[in-house]
Amino acid sequence: MIPKLTPEHTLPACVLAFRDALVAAGFSGDIETSYAARLAVATDNSVYQALPQAVLLPKTLSDLQTITTLGQSPAFSGLKFSPRGGGTGTNGQALTEHLVVDVSRHMRQILEFNAEERWVRVEAGVIKDQLNAFLKPHGFFFAPDLSTSNRATIGGMISTDASGQGSLVYGKTSDHVLALKSVLVDGTVLDTAPMPRSQAETLAAEPNRIGAIYRQVLQSTLDHREQIKAKFPRLNRFLTGYDLEHVWNEQLSEFDLGRVITGAEGSLGFVVEAKLNITPIAPFKCLINVKYDSFESALRNAPFLVAARATSVETVDSKVLDLARNDIIWHQVKSYIEDVPGKTMYGLNMVEYNAEDEAEMQDKVQTLEQRLQQAVANGESGIIGYQLTYDLNGISQIYAMRKKAVGLLGNAKGAQKPVPFTEDTAVPPENLADFIMEFRALLDSHQLTYGMFGHVDAGVLHVRPALDMTDPAQEVLLRQVSDQVVALTAKYGGLMWGEHGKGYRSEYGPAFFGDTLFNELRKIKAAFDPDNRMNPGKICTPWQNNDKLVSVDGVKRGYFDRQIPLTVRQSFDSAANCNGNGLCFNYEENSPMCPSSKITKDRQHSPKGRAGLMREWLRLMSKQGVDVLAQEQQLLERGAGIGKLWQKARNSWRKQRGEQDFSHEVMAAMEGCLACKACAGQCPIKVDVPSFRSRFLQLYHSRYLRPLKDYVVAGIEQTAPMLAKFPTLVNGGLKLTPTKFLLEKTVGYVDSPLLSVPTLAQQLDGQYTFDLAKLQAMSAAERQNVVLLVQDPFTSFYEAELVADALALMQKLGFKPMLLPFLPNGKPQHVKGFLREFAKTASTAAQFFNQLSALDLPLLGLDASLVLVYRDEYVKALGELRGDFTVQVFHEWLVQQKLPAMKQLAEHTNPFKLFAHCTEKTALPTTEKNWQQIYSAAGLKLDVVAVGCCGMAGTYGHEVQNQANSRALYDLSWQQHVEQTSISNMLVTGFSCRSQVKRYEGSKPLHPLQQLLRLLP
Ligand SMILES: Cc1cc2nc3c(=O)[nH]c(=O)nc-3n(C[C@H](O)[C@H](O)[C@H](O)COP(=O)(O)OP(=O)(O)OC[C@H]3O[C@@H](n4cnc5c(N)ncnc54)[C@H](O)[C@@H]3O)c2cc1C
Ligand code: SF4
Ligand code: SF4
Fold first, then answer.
1. How far, CA to CA in Å, does 526 sit from each of 519, 529, 549, 791, 801?
2. Is the pLDDT of residue 713 over 90?
3. What is the residue with the minimal CA distance to atom 6 of ligand 2?
4. Against a cut of 0.90, is the pTM above it?
5. Using a 6 Å cutoff on CB, does residue 419 contact ligand 1?
């Protein structure tokens, strides 16, 4: 039995008093002080980890004023604040041991839009892609781009002065900020926008905080103008962190205080709102992928491509390309980056052209094409080929691959993982190739591996050397390499922080700026935040303040990770390897990743949050001397033991009475997971939450009793066949109000599905019977057209007509289908963490299927979420004993068959619409394409509808406590698409999804195979 866990981190009294004072003062946002909530924001994408004292999640400007004005009272003068957005920083910018103020959950409103004047006003928590999705129908976009665009916030972008692809043309975030509204540490609301010098001087004369700030910034920037211009590099990626140069225009006639706030990393105040310049979307776009014989060739060729009037030039090396080949994303991009016959591609430049009209586009593209053809023919510049596309969807997919590069690198095998600390160096583009060659030599001298990609047009290259941060010696190496790279960038006239800001690298600031200018930064900080209370330690400390800057030697995640024994880390590699890049925070409604995170906007309920909680739980267990793996083994071999029941009952009773145990916090996060497995498919590191979740559940329930619903769900494959013997009776009972009430109150279950009437056996009436002996006796020729259909509990007992239709379809196509006897699959047991029982179920099923696989016949299943268990969970549970049988999802088999032309009915003049199950399409990325191929081969049109999770996910949608989230998920992504599609045109691959549509719309859509059957001639 696992012990109780009580983390040592108790909160200081002043934090608890501050929490109470906030509530009393009418703070309308959320205040989170649990250990789990604090852990969820203790990391970003960097190597660092810092546990905050609390997380404040304001809803309004007035909430931020409440925080800051209350913070002025002497009782709270020791409190410090770090603003936070998407938490995607790569250098610990938003990490703190003080209070996190996270604006990303609630402050997500787009407030005002003016197409004529080309601007938009937004709250700081708006996500970059959310803004662009809003602007797209109006023909505009917010131009500064960054790889984390689907989760990084405008507040975070402003505060790091983010930029990325296309920065040569589109500039950085600061180039597009028209006005800012900020709240300062004393509660002052500061509005900034470009203004005439005279107005700035008038403001500077005011006897208040704003006057003091203007006075200081005017003085610092005018007195040292020449020095500033000499120090700030003449680069596209100019300096971040108090931009002393660009507060002025060239003529010194216009002043914008906002320029010191952009890039300030939250060290000067909270950005609350921003008025942003927006850019018209170019009507014509083309992407040319130029392929090279080496990465060096790609780098050296970049200036030529820029000179060829490219809008942007992005590069990736062969390592990134190779990793992309093994990722779900490759299916979308492979046709645009085909291999060159007889050559090996070691580098790729992606050249984008934007144009206002077709003639302009053709002129640019044809000129470059001629040169590229010449180069390929003459073997010049290492160019081995190129490919061109105008397909907007293809272009965005290729960029999605490029944006995923960091995550993909993190998926490298072995203990050494690519880590950020030198990942955004910028040098003048003409020096880039030489700089990178020397950079590579430096890394090679330390025997470090790395992958490279980046914005060659701007001289920015992303390099993440692979280190094992759990090894203290490698932590020392990180510092050494870091120092060497700082020196190297200086040698080539560049910057260590060319894109991602300073964060824990702030310690390099004084040496870079020199005493005089750095002191001016400190004076500016003092004018805004004299007591160093805003994101302390980042960028600089206030003038005449003795606090220290944060440093590259700060406490790292590896320090905590290494406290988990290696064998445990390896066994829970999925949780251990999450690198925090935050791709799982994807805001996009129609993306499968990650429903619980999307709907709660709570970081604990994301794959990253759950992985972090799991790591900490394993660390605390290890600290208490618990051998988690041994406990698991014991539970698998002997079960929890009846003798422990009394102890469990006592522990559960104590839980009811509010006894603290960190395991409860982990449990709450795990319970919110839908076990949809979108993370396992879409996370670049393949963090598979359901896999470690079920292991956690098993261990948790070795100490605490299980709720009744766990037994009901886990036993569904055993009870359904029995109940299906009396379907009318059972359904009648289920429809009664008292039964519904009882199920809801005792089991916690609502809207239970009804059993099929007539049953499957009645519908089949003795056809398609499986007879092993008969099959074994047949010759290979006789067996040729036999296909075996594997039953699953959901379709067989609750949707028998689908099983019957599948068999009929196969028969009509000329096959001899046979229905295998029902054998439990085990998924419900796995989902609820009954791993001992699951192993037994899996073993029985595997033995049966292995016996069949000797017959060499196709084994097909109808519901992908169950079929996929044979491929993944069975391997994990049984190892070699799983054998090598294969069960295909129905479409995987059907796509290989020849289909006749189908009937074209008048009511189907519009294309059919495919809604694919999220588990299926993330694990089998060709699912939608395969169905389109099948329908096209049958002469039918099928459009794919991009949808996220339907909110049902097995039994999640039936559990009482999930009702609000289940409905909200359906409304978020499915409801609008369902509304736009007639039910007769809708084709839905998942049992759960069909049930959810039935539950909310009253009618059930068909599976795509059923429509085929109906249209067979
Ligand atoms: C895989 C990956 C790829 C990346 N690619 C790029 C890229 O292409 N280009 C690029 O520029 N960056 C990139 N980054 C870095 C990061 O995404 C950016 O710095 C981004 O702008 C951070 O936004 P965020 O909302 O996540 O902010 P956070 O990480 O939460 O915060 C960043 C900083 O901004 C401050 N801050 C946040 N909100 C506010 C606010 N409202 N008021 C005041 N201060 C605030 C925080 O205190 C912190 O100092 C990448 C990061 C990762 C993990
Ligand atoms: S779970 Fe995956 S996507 Fe999410 S932060 Fe971790 S590695 Fe990134
Ligand atoms: S299984 Fe689904 S709900 Fe659970 S963490 Fe993964 S993506 Fe989120």
1. 10, 5, 14, 70, 73
2. yes
3. 578
4. yes
5. no
